[in-house]
Protein backbone atom coordinates (compact mmCIF):
# COMPACT_ATOMS: atom_id res chain seq x y z
CA UNK A 1 0.00 0.00 0.00
CA UNK A 2 1.74 3.16 0.36
CA UNK A 3 5.20 3.34 -1.02
CA UNK A 4 4.27 0.45 -3.17
CA UNK A 5 5.95 1.96 -6.20
CA UNK A 6 9.27 1.12 -4.58
CA UNK A 7 7.97 -2.36 -3.81
CA UNK A 8 7.66 -3.35 -7.43
CA UNK A 9 10.83 -1.65 -8.52
CA UNK A 10 12.89 -3.26 -5.75
CA UNK A 11 15.28 -6.06 -6.68
CA UNK A 12 13.42 -6.90 -9.87
CA UNK A 13 16.29 -8.95 -11.26
CA UNK A 14 16.57 -11.09 -8.13
CA UNK A 15 12.83 -11.59 -7.73
CA UNK A 16 12.06 -12.50 -11.31
CA UNK A 17 15.01 -14.81 -11.58
CA UNK A 18 13.96 -16.66 -8.43
CA UNK A 19 10.20 -16.82 -8.99
CA UNK A 20 8.43 -17.81 -12.19
CA UNK A 21 5.81 -15.50 -13.72
CA UNK A 22 2.13 -16.32 -13.22
CA UNK A 23 1.86 -17.12 -9.55
CA UNK A 24 -1.78 -18.06 -8.92
CA UNK A 25 -4.25 -19.29 -11.51
CA UNK A 26 -1.42 -18.75 -14.02
CA UNK A 27 -2.32 -15.07 -14.21
CA UNK A 28 0.36 -12.59 -15.22
CA UNK A 29 -0.38 -8.91 -15.75
CA UNK A 30 1.02 -7.18 -18.77
CA UNK A 31 3.30 -4.26 -18.09
CA UNK A 32 0.69 -1.54 -18.87
CA UNK A 33 -1.95 -3.34 -16.81
CA UNK A 34 0.45 -3.75 -13.90
CA UNK A 35 1.39 -0.07 -13.95
CA UNK A 36 -2.23 1.03 -14.13
CA UNK A 37 -3.19 -1.25 -11.25
CA UNK A 38 -0.22 0.00 -9.26
CA UNK A 39 -1.31 3.63 -9.73
CA UNK A 40 -4.83 2.76 -8.54
CA UNK A 41 -3.43 0.86 -5.57
CA UNK A 42 -1.10 3.65 -4.45
CA UNK A 43 -3.78 6.33 -4.90
CA UNK A 44 -6.38 4.34 -2.95
CA UNK A 45 -3.87 3.53 -0.21
CA UNK A 46 -2.78 7.16 0.16
CA UNK A 47 -6.43 8.23 0.26
CA UNK A 48 -7.17 5.64 2.95
CA UNK A 49 -4.25 6.86 5.05
CA UNK A 50 -5.24 10.52 4.70
CA UNK A 51 -8.86 9.77 5.53
CA UNK A 52 -7.83 7.84 8.65
CA UNK A 53 -5.73 10.79 9.81
CA UNK A 54 -8.69 13.09 9.21
CA UNK A 55 -11.01 10.85 11.22
CA UNK A 56 -8.52 10.81 14.08
CA UNK A 57 -8.29 14.61 14.04
CA UNK A 58 -12.09 14.92 14.11
CA UNK A 59 -12.33 12.34 16.90
CA UNK A 60 -9.79 14.19 19.04
CA UNK A 61 -11.67 17.43 18.45
CA UNK A 62 -14.99 15.87 19.47
CA UNK A 63 -13.47 14.31 22.60
CA UNK A 64 -11.63 17.39 23.83
CA UNK A 65 -13.76 20.38 22.88
CA UNK A 66 -16.22 21.99 25.27
CA UNK A 67 -18.56 23.21 22.56
CA UNK A 68 -21.63 21.11 21.84
CA UNK A 69 -21.85 22.59 18.35
CA UNK A 70 -18.27 21.56 17.57
CA UNK A 71 -18.86 18.07 18.93
CA UNK A 72 -21.91 17.58 16.74
CA UNK A 73 -20.18 18.96 13.67
CA UNK A 74 -17.15 16.72 14.23
CA UNK A 75 -19.08 13.48 14.69
CA UNK A 76 -21.36 14.25 11.76
CA UNK A 77 -18.31 14.79 9.55
CA UNK A 78 -16.84 11.51 10.80
CA UNK A 79 -20.06 9.67 9.92
CA UNK A 80 -20.09 11.23 6.45
CA UNK A 81 -16.51 10.16 5.75
CA UNK A 82 -16.98 6.70 7.26
CA UNK A 83 -20.17 5.98 5.32
CA UNK A 84 -19.20 7.30 1.91
CA UNK A 85 -15.41 7.26 1.61
CA UNK A 86 -13.68 5.00 4.11
CA UNK A 87 -15.07 1.62 3.11
CA UNK A 88 -14.86 2.15 -0.68
CA UNK A 89 -11.22 3.23 -0.43
CA UNK A 90 -10.40 0.29 1.83
CA UNK A 91 -12.02 -2.20 -0.54
CA UNK A 92 -10.31 -0.64 -3.55
CA UNK A 93 -6.96 -0.95 -1.77
CA UNK A 94 -7.65 -4.62 -0.98
CA UNK A 95 -8.78 -5.54 -4.49
CA UNK A 96 -5.96 -3.73 -6.29
CA UNK A 97 -3.43 -5.29 -3.92
CA UNK A 98 -4.83 -8.75 -4.65
CA UNK A 99 -4.61 -8.15 -8.39
CA UNK A 100 -0.99 -7.05 -8.08
CA UNK A 101 -0.01 -10.02 -5.94
CA UNK A 102 -1.85 -12.66 -7.97
CA UNK A 103 -0.75 -11.27 -11.33
CA UNK A 104 2.96 -10.81 -10.62
CA UNK A 105 5.80 -13.04 -9.35
CA UNK A 106 5.42 -11.66 -5.80
CA UNK A 107 2.48 -13.95 -5.18
CA UNK A 108 0.02 -13.80 -2.32
CA UNK A 109 1.44 -16.51 -0.05
CA UNK A 110 5.09 -16.63 -1.11
CA UNK A 111 6.51 -13.78 0.96
CA UNK A 112 5.66 -13.31 4.61
CA UNK A 113 5.31 -9.53 4.38
CA UNK A 114 2.79 -9.79 1.53
CA UNK A 115 0.81 -12.47 3.35
CA UNK A 116 0.73 -10.47 6.61
CA UNK A 117 -0.29 -7.30 4.78
CA UNK A 118 -3.21 -9.08 3.18
CA UNK A 119 -4.60 -10.34 6.50
CA UNK A 120 -4.01 -7.02 8.24
CA UNK A 121 -5.86 -5.20 5.49
CA UNK A 122 -8.73 -7.66 5.77
CA UNK A 123 -8.80 -7.28 9.56
CA UNK A 124 -8.78 -3.47 9.31
CA UNK A 125 -11.70 -3.50 6.87
CA UNK A 126 -13.63 -5.85 9.17
CA UNK A 127 -12.99 -3.56 12.15
CA UNK A 128 -14.17 -0.59 10.09
CA UNK A 129 -17.45 -2.30 9.27
CA UNK A 130 -18.24 -3.78 12.69
CA UNK A 131 -16.61 -1.33 15.12
CA UNK A 132 -15.69 2.09 13.73
CA UNK A 133 -18.85 2.84 11.75
CA UNK A 134 -21.29 1.63 14.45
CA UNK A 135 -19.39 3.60 17.09
CA UNK A 136 -19.53 6.80 15.07
CA UNK A 137 -23.20 6.19 14.31
CA UNK A 138 -24.00 5.81 18.01
CA UNK A 139 -22.13 9.03 18.79
CA UNK A 140 -24.06 10.93 16.13
CA UNK A 141 -27.39 9.61 17.45
CA UNK A 142 -26.58 10.66 21.02
CA UNK A 143 -25.28 14.12 20.11
CA UNK A 144 -28.15 14.83 17.71
CA UNK A 145 -30.60 14.14 20.53
CA UNK A 146 -29.01 16.95 22.51
CA UNK A 147 -26.92 14.82 24.82
CA UNK A 148 -23.14 14.78 25.33
CA UNK A 149 -20.71 12.51 23.58
CA UNK A 150 -21.45 9.14 25.23
CA UNK A 151 -17.96 7.66 25.02
CA UNK A 152 -14.80 9.18 23.59
CA UNK A 153 -13.61 5.70 22.67
CA UNK A 154 -16.37 5.45 20.05
CA UNK A 155 -14.66 8.14 17.98
CA UNK A 156 -11.03 7.51 18.95
CA UNK A 157 -10.31 3.78 19.14
CA UNK A 158 -11.24 2.98 15.55
CA UNK A 159 -9.04 5.62 13.89
CA UNK A 160 -6.13 4.88 16.26
CA UNK A 161 -6.20 1.14 15.55
CA UNK A 162 -6.59 1.67 11.80
CA UNK A 163 -3.76 4.20 11.68
CA UNK A 164 -1.44 1.93 13.69
CA UNK A 165 -2.12 -1.04 11.42
CA UNK A 166 -1.70 1.12 8.35
CA UNK A 167 1.66 2.51 9.45
CA UNK A 168 2.88 -1.01 10.23
CA UNK A 169 1.83 -2.22 6.77
CA UNK A 170 3.62 0.72 5.18
CA UNK A 171 6.78 -0.14 7.08
CA UNK A 172 6.84 -3.78 5.99
CA UNK A 173 6.04 -2.72 2.42
CA UNK A 174 9.27 -0.72 2.37
CA UNK A 175 11.50 -3.09 4.37
CA UNK A 176 10.06 -6.42 3.08
CA UNK A 177 11.22 -8.45 6.09
CA UNK A 178 11.03 -12.14 7.07
CA UNK A 179 11.78 -13.69 3.67
CA UNK A 180 9.76 -16.47 2.04
CA UNK A 181 6.93 -18.43 3.57
CA UNK A 182 7.03 -22.22 3.77
CA UNK A 183 4.96 -22.32 0.58
CA UNK A 184 7.39 -19.96 -1.15
CA UNK A 185 10.42 -22.02 -0.10
CA UNK A 186 8.77 -25.20 -1.32
CA UNK A 187 8.03 -23.66 -4.71
CA UNK A 188 11.61 -22.42 -5.02
CA UNK A 189 12.96 -25.87 -4.11
CA UNK A 190 10.67 -27.53 -6.62
CA UNK A 191 11.85 -25.20 -9.34
CA UNK A 192 15.51 -25.81 -8.48
CA UNK A 193 14.98 -29.58 -8.39
CA UNK A 194 13.15 -29.48 -11.70
CA UNK A 195 15.92 -27.58 -13.50
CA UNK A 196 18.91 -29.76 -12.51
CA UNK A 197 17.86 -33.04 -14.20
CA UNK A 198 17.16 -31.20 -17.43
CA UNK A 199 20.66 -29.74 -17.54
CA UNK A 200 22.26 -33.08 -16.70
CA UNK A 201 20.26 -34.86 -19.37
CA UNK A 202 21.17 -32.36 -22.05
CA UNK A 203 24.85 -32.65 -21.17
CA UNK A 204 24.67 -36.43 -21.32
CA UNK A 205 23.23 -36.30 -24.81
CA UNK A 206 26.07 -34.15 -26.06
CA UNK A 207 28.84 -36.40 -24.83
CA UNK A 208 27.16 -39.81 -25.08
CA UNK A 209 29.24 -42.48 -26.82
CA UNK A 210 26.36 -44.13 -28.74
CA UNK A 211 25.88 -40.96 -30.75
CA UNK A 212 29.47 -41.30 -32.09
CA UNK A 213 29.39 -44.98 -33.00
CA UNK A 214 27.77 -44.66 -36.44
CA UNK A 215 30.31 -41.99 -37.43
CA UNK A 216 33.27 -44.12 -36.25
CA UNK A 217 32.00 -47.19 -38.11
CA UNK A 218 31.59 -45.23 -41.34
CA UNK A 219 35.11 -43.85 -41.12
CA UNK A 220 36.53 -47.34 -40.52
CA UNK A 221 34.81 -48.76 -43.60
CA UNK A 222 36.08 -45.91 -45.76
CA UNK A 223 39.67 -46.48 -44.55
CA UNK A 224 39.47 -50.22 -45.30
Overview of this protein structure:
The protein folds into two domains: 4-180, Four Helix Bundle (Hemerythrin (Met), subunit A) (Up-down Bundle); 183-224. It has eight helices and no strands. The protein has helices spanning 4-9, 12-18, 31-64, 68-102, 112-144, 153-175, 182-207, 213-223. Helix 3 packs antiparallel against helix 4, helix 3 runs antiparallel to helix 6 (153-175) and helix 4 (68-102) runs antiparallel to helix 5. The longest helix is centred in the middle third of the chain and has 35 residues, at 68-102. The termini are far apart.
For the structure shown, list the relevant keywords.
224 residues, mainly alpha, Four Helix Bundle (Hemerythrin (Met), subunit A), 8 helices, 78% helix, elongated
Short description:
The protein is mainly α. It has helices at about 5-10, 10-20, 30-65, 70-100, 110-145, 155-175, 180-205, 215-224.
How many β-strand stretches?
Answer: 0
Along the chain, the helix and strand elements come as HHHHHHHH
Sheet/helix structural class: mainly alpha
The amount of helix comes to: over 70%
The largest sheet is:
none
